[in-house]
Amino acid sequence: MNTRNLAFLASILVVSTLRADPAITIYNENFGVVRDTVPLDLKAGVNDISFADTTAHLEPDSVILRDPAGKADFQILEQNYRNDPVSQESLLYLFDGKTIDFLITGEGKEDRTVKGKIIRSGYAPHSAEAVERYGSDFAVDQGEAPQPVIEVEGKVVFGLPGKPLFPSLGDDTILKPALNWKIETNSDAKFDAELAYVTGGMTWSADYNLAAPEDGDVVDLVGWITMNNETGKTFEHAKVKLMAGHVNKIQPQAPRMSGAFSMDATAGAAMPPPVTEKAFDEYHLYTVQHPVTLHDKETKQVEFIHATGVKAPKIYVYDGARFNGQIWEEDMIGNGPNGEGDYGSESSKTVSVMREIKNSKENGLGVPLPAGKIRFYKQGDDRQLEFTGENTIEHTPKDETLRIYTGDAFDLVGERTQTNFHGSDSDANETYAIKVRNHKTQPTQIQVVEHMFRSTNWKITKNSMPFTKTNSHEIKFFVDLNPDEEKTVDYTVHYWW
User: Fold this and answer.
1) What is the arithmetic mean of pLDDT over 160-179?
2) Nearest to 310 by CA among 388, 364, 269, 262
3) What pLDDT, in 10s, does the model give residues 268-315?
C-alpha cells in the first residue's frame, strides 16, 4: 500500500468507545439533552470522523461539538446523521436485482438452500421516517408495503422462499445510528471533545405515595422519580439530571401538512440524599447523586423524597352546584340569563373528599415538588394498607398548599334546594336551603361552598349561620355534624346589574 493510501486511511477516525461517562438532562416534555465525550486525534487538513453511539431520535440541528478547554482550532465542514441501521428489509433493498441464497427449513425434509433473484425487495427506504413526519395519511397514500418478489428456478414467488443468506452487509450500511463529520484543522490536535445534542424519547415524572395511619391525619410521604428511555440507546453509568418546569420547546407540526439542599425531608437522616435539588434559571434542577445505567426501553425509579410526620388533614366539601370535585374555577358567572329562576339551580348530592398539605419545612416538607401523580393509602385495623384515591399535582413551590381531590364520601350527603326566587331586569333575590347529613360514627365537619354566579354585584341579606367570603363570588359555611345528624344552611342573596 502506497504512502498516499496510508495517509488517507489515517484520516478516517472511528471514535473509541472507551471514553468518559455520559451525562443526561431529562425534561418533562418528552425530550432530553445528552452530553458525551468524543476523543479526537485530528491531523492537519480534513479529517473524517465517525461517532456511532447516538440515540435514534437525535435532532441533528441541535448538535454541538466543541473543545471544552477552548484551545483546539477546528472547523466542521460537514455533518451527516445516519439513522437507518441495517435490517433484513434494507439488505433486500441493497441486493435488489441480484441473486442470493435462501435457506428453506421445516418441510419435513433436510434443510436446503435455493438461489433466488430479488426482483422486488418490498422495502421503501425512509418510509417509516416519512410516516412519522407526515402522519398515517402518508401510509394510506403510498399504499401497503408491497410483498417481496423473488425468482426461484424460473418461477416468480411472492414473499420470501426462505431465510435470506446475504453474502455481505453490502456497501454503505450502518449497524447503529451515527454522526459523521468532516473536520478541518490547520494543525494536529488531540483532545476530548464535548458532544451535546437534543434527543426525543426521554421522559420523567414524579410519583408520590402517602400512607396514613388508621386514625389521624399525619402521614408518611415517599416520592419517586420515574425515568423512561425510548431513545434506542443504552446509557452506561450516566450522570442524570431532571429539569422540572414548563420549558418552551417548538413541537413538530401536526401530521399532514439558589443553593442545593437535601430532598430527604426526614430530620436527622444519616444517609446522604439520593437526589438533590437547586433552582436553575426559572426552573428547578434535580440531580441523581449516583451514576445511573439506563437501558433502552427501560423504566427506572429512584426515591427522591422521604418524609414522615406530614400533616395532611382530610377535608369534606359539599359544592352542590358542581358535579366534579376537581372543578373549582367559576365557569358560570355571566354565562347565562341572570334573571331566570332555574338558572344554576341544578345540584348534586356528592360530598367530595380532599386532602390539604402545606408544603412547608414546619410540615416536614418545604421543598419544590415537581408535577406528578399522588396516591393515598390508609392503614386498616389489620395494619394493612388500602388504596383510597389518587390525583395529579402541578409543579408546587415550597410554602404553597396542595388541595387534592381523592374521591367522594360514602356516608356524607348534601342536598341543595332553591326555595325562593324573584328577578327583574335589574336585580334578583334568591334563597337556597342546603341540607347536609352525616351517617358516620364520628363527628365530621363539612365545608359547604356556594357560588354567587348571577352577577359580580351581590350581597348576602340573610343567613342562618356564619359564612366566610373566600373570593369575589364564593362563600363557605363550616358545618359541624354529630353522628347521624342533619343540619340545614339557609341564605338569601341580592344581585344587581
Assistant:
1) 75
2) 364
3) 444 455 677 666 666 678 888 888 899 999 999 988 889 999 999 999
User: Is-contact 451 493, C-beta < 8 A?
Assistant: no
For range 393-419, the mean pLDDT:
93
Q: What is the largest CA-CA distance in the chain?
A: 105
Q: Which of 333-342, 375-384, 486-495 has the weakest average pLDDT?
A: 333-342
User: Between β-strands 235-244 and 261-262, what pairing exists: parallel, antiparallel or unpaired?
Assistant: unpaired
- On the CB side of 435, how many CA atoms lie within 13 Å of its CA? 9
CB-count burial class (<10 Å; 0-12, 13-18, 19+) for 224: middle
Task: Please report, for residues 137, 224, 264, 305, 442, the alpha-carbon distance to residue 274 in angstroms, rounded to integers and kept in the order given.
Answer: 46, 11, 8, 8, 42
Q: Is the pLDDT of residue 267 over 50?
A: no
**Distances in whole angstroms, Cα of residue 83 to Cα of each of 180, 195, 321, 328:** 11, 18, 56, 48
pTM more than 0.85 = no
- The amino acid present at 301, given as its one-letter code, is Q
Mean pLDDT value of segment 437-456? 93
The three cell numbers of residue 79 are: 455533518
Q: Virtual CA dihedral for 404, 406, 409, 414, nearest 10 degrees?
A: 50
Measured CA to CA in angstroms, residue 267 lies from 79, 277, 396 at distances of: 52, 17, 21
Tell me the CA distances in angstroms from 66 to 56, 187, 192, 193, 196, one per residue in order.
22, 16, 9, 5, 9
- Is the C-alpha dihedral spanning 293, 294, 296, 298 positive or negative? positive
H helix runs in 143-237, sequence order: none
With a CB cutoff of 8 Å and minimum separation 6, the contacts of 127 are 139, 142, 145
- CB contact set of 155 (below 8 Å; sequence gap of 6+): none
For 128-151, how does the pLDDT look when each residue is reduced to its tens digit (9 = 90+)? 444 444 444 444 344 455 788 889
All three cell numbers of 108, joined, read 419435513
Strands 155-158 and 149-152: antiparallel
